[in-house]
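Hey, weird one. I pasted the Lipoprotein sequence into the form twice and got a warning about non-standard characters only the second time. First submission, copied straight from the form history:
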Amino acid sequence: MRSTGLKTIKPGKRALAAAAMGVGLLAATTACSATSPQQTTHQYAASDGVNAQFADLKIRNAMVVSDGEKNPGRLLGTIFNGSASDVVVTVNGAEGSQTQVRVKANNEVSLDAGDPAVLSTTGAKPGALVDLKFSGEGQNLTVQVPVLDGTIKEYRPFLPTPSPTATHATATPMPTATESAK
């Protein structure tokens, strides 16, 4: 018989070679995350609103819901007060519109519950950004906040209703049941 020149590999070396190939394959398939950015380390506003922070106040998911630039707009979001004292946060919008929100010490206020924080004039069309100046604890911050309308059904209940205007209506008496039976 003729020899082919191949040597026989011992079983221990064969196992070592298989383990080395397994480690190499594992490293090759999992190392891609070492160079790819991780989305969980990037902070962003995960909803339609924006986030901001100044002093001990954190504003989360802030947005204005309105059906027009010159119409009232309701401020939505949450304001967190990390200070040891109560704070009144003043929000100034377009054309002198203003609203205030009282936030107790080490507490939060969700603006979609309770008394609505309404600006008399939105100052931007739905789909645009409006500058709102948040003031509290002797500091202030201007934030560009998105204006949304009732296109998304979850925001429809938050659209401010226009204030009633005085009208001069005349009442027409309706016939009573006994009069209409005659």
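That's the output from the first submission. The warning seems to come from a hidden character in my clipboard, not from the data itself. Strands lie at 50-54, 57-65, 73-81, 87-92, 98-103, 107-110, 117-119, 129-136, 139-148.
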